[in-house]
Design brief:
The longest helix is centred in the C-terminal third of the chain and has 28 residues, at 271-298. The chain is an alpha/beta fold and 412 residues long. A hairpin with a 5-residue loop joins strand 4 (170-177) and strand 5 (183-186). The strands form 2 sheets. Strands 1, 3, 4, 5, 6, 7, 8 and 9 form an 8-stranded mixed β-sheet that branches. The chain has a two-stranded antiparallel sheet with strand order 2-10. The chain is globular, with a radius of gyration of 23 Å. 47% of the residues lie in helices and 10% in strands.
């Protein structure tokens, strides 16, 4: 089925989904469920451009294949889909083949190390010679080939496709060429012959967690190494509106809604993993913000909307980015946060969305809703503090602050 061209009178809408590991994919499913309910005049399985990076590629490819956010919730979050059985453990199997491959190189590496030390003892030294054994360290802990196999099964059933060229709309999955460090846009010219499932596998190959993925003789790793959102892809495709989801933000105790005086101490108390998490999140988010400010100048006639967690969201920050545990509660958390965010930003978002024929469904947004009855119980049990219900004054304040932030960005 060839790609369709949207009439010129209709807006061209792009969706960019950032990386974030399993937690990021879970967050994006919950956020998309909220956006799908609250926004009228837009179908998230019928957009013009889809761009996915790493875990975001997983979700973008599903949407491009007509799998709705609610269907993704049933498949990936609750595992209740009868047609598409999903078990998270299948993505966390040790990379035994990679382990064996590296083990088999040890004898040769030992001989090379011994010979280097024997022939140049003063120049290399014993430590330098045996550093060659580092080549025996596996390039990844888990086998990511199951991502390709699973998505291949999903995308070749029920009228879907695993071929970029057969999709109704444009889909781009971004990965990084390990040998050149450049971003590669699978689905683009010259790279659209690669299967969608293999492209998602490559884009999700986070160094250290998964081995690089070989495609046409080249090796690819996580697409987030170069950029966080790659919003420029949608902009280059002449999108009129670009909706961006970014699940990974640094934690800021100053805006934490929990009001706990000892929050700032918790980052230090968490030890190295928490410090590294904050560092990683800060680098990724700072890079994204710089890009968004640049786009505001270079594409001032295009509307770009960003949805992401609150910087004071303790639950998101202290969750394991690479864990599938408690995914129903985390997806519900993303769903409720996005609904609250939409209510807070309604005054700011309404005129922007209206320019593209999209309206806010206030009845659905203000109604008390949950993704499922089980998620409702889990969410209420885990959250002692209820969600803040915004009023018109708060909406106006948020819109004013957003306008001020845009003005400051332009001044900078």
């Amino acid at each position: 089925m060839p790609r369709s061209k949207r009439k010129s009178s209709q807006p061209c809408i792009g969706l960019n989904l950032a990386a974030g590991g399993p937690l990021g994919a879970i967050y994006e499913v919950g956020a998309l469920c909220a956006l799908e309910e609250a926004l009228q005049g837009i179908e998230f399985t019928d957009l013009d451009i889809y761009v996915g990076i790493s875990a975001g590629g997983f979700i973008a490819a599903a949407l491009a294949n007509q799998i709705t956010p609610r269907e993704m919730y049933e498949i990936f979050i609750t595992s209740r889909s009868k047609t598409t059985p999903f078990e998270p453990d299948q993505f966390l199997r040790p990379a035994y083949r990679e382990y064996l491959k590296r083990i088999l190189t040890i004898p040769e590496l030992l001989m090379d190390a011994f010979w280097a030390f024997a022939t140049h003892p003063q120049e290399i030294g014993l430590t330098g010679a045996f550093m060659q054994l580092a080549h025996a360290i596996p390039t990844g802990l888990f086998d990511n080939s199951e991502i390709d196999r699973f998505l291949s099964r999903v995308f070749t059933s029920e009228g879907r496709t695993n071929d970029f060229r057969a999709l109704r709309h444009k889909l781009y999955i971004v990965a990084t060429d390990l040998d050149t460090g450049r971003s590669v846009k699978f689905g683009g010219i010259g790279h659209d012959h690669v299967s969608i499932s293999k492209a998602v596998q490559a884009s999700s190959a986070l160094p250290g967690l998964f081995p690089p993925v070989e495609i046409d003789g080249d090796h690819y790793v996580d697409g987030a190494l170069k950029k966080t959102l790659h919003a420029s892809i949608s902009l280059d495709e002449e999108a009129d509106l670009v909706i961006c989801l970014n699940p990974i933000v640094p934690f800021d105790s100053r805006v934490s809604p929990y009001g706990q005086s000892n929050t700032r101490d918790k980052l230090m108390q968490g030890g190295l993993p928490v410090v590294l998490s904050q560092t990683f999140r800060s680098i990724i988010h700072s890079r994204m913000r710089v890009g968004m400010q640049r786009y505001a100048h270079s594409h001032s006639d295009i509307d770009i909307l960003l949805f992401e967690p609150s910087h004071g969201d303790k639950e998101i920050f202290f969750s394991n980015v690479f864990s599938y545990a408690d995914r129903e509660n985390m997806c519900e958390h993303a769903y409720q946060h996005t609904r609250a965010d939409l209510r807070l930003r309604a005054a700011e978002l309404e005129p922007t969305l209206a320019r593209h024929g999209i309206t806010i469904n206030y009845a659905a947004l203000n109604e008390e809703r949950y993704l499922s009855s089980k998620a409702h119980k889990l969410y209420l049990r885990k959250h002692a503090i209820p969600l803040l219900q915004p009023n018109a004054s708060l909406n106006q304040l948020y819109a004013t602050l957003a306008t001020l932030e845009q003005w400051l960005a332009c001044q900078r």
